[in-house]
Amino acid sequence: MKNKLTVPGSLAAAFLSSSIAVVLMGIMVYLRGGVLKPTLEIYPALGTFGGIWLYSYLIWLVLWVILYAVMRARADVGSLAYWVNFFIVAVLLGIVIAEASFEWSTLFQ
Amino acid sequence: MLFTITVLHGVFALVLIVALSWTALILSGLFKSGSAAVGAWAALISALLLNALGTYSYVFYRLADPTSPRSIILENQAWVHRILFESMEYVGLIVPIMIAVITAAVVIYGRRVSESVEISGQINRLVYITTFIVLLMAVAGFIPTTIAIAK
Lengths: 109, 151
Known about the structure:
The structure holds 2 protein chains of 2 kinds.
Chain A: H1 9-30, H2 37-40, H3 48-71, H4 80-99
Chain B: H1 2-27, H2 36-61, H3 69-76, H4 78-91, H5 94-109, H6 112-115, H7 117-150
């Protein structure tokens, strides 16, 4: 009997592309003052924010399109609980990586 | 113009919170009428507009000028920019992605969302977490704005 909570490939593509994008976004934020600075400064008025904004959304949308094309024919790609948990972990990871780059020492100045 | 954009930025933040709350109430079954898809789409559109307006006003926020909000905040309360504003700036970018996933789930499952408590419950977990992050980001953005206006 088919599980009611199975995730079709089209939805798994959304979960997977979004999970990868949020983690990559966190990494870009973390490296914005270092090696990625020249790459991310695409518009001087926005600083590195412009590059993070553009590249992370571009990566997300391109990944979503590619993964959708690859996975859409699959009827069952795991359970909904699994993908929701997977995405929540990715979001928390992206946030922690981004927050780790902030100047927390200024709290005590 | 900038003032109008900033006010609209705040208005869309409020619309986003209302749309997410509305979606959560429908998914939890507390609201019997209404469509979770409409709530999710409204949240997605307001998140994208919020994002676009915020990016526009950010150009003026960070002007290399001693009277720009960023300069004023850095001079008076550096942590407010370094932690609060930067959290809103970067973590806020994740919000439209989270809402897009919620919208995709609601649209793809269609009628099954209202028929299956398990499906609506799992999607609602994402809605609750997204709402919590949006509320945190709203506070993180409101404090620097208030300081800049007061100074």
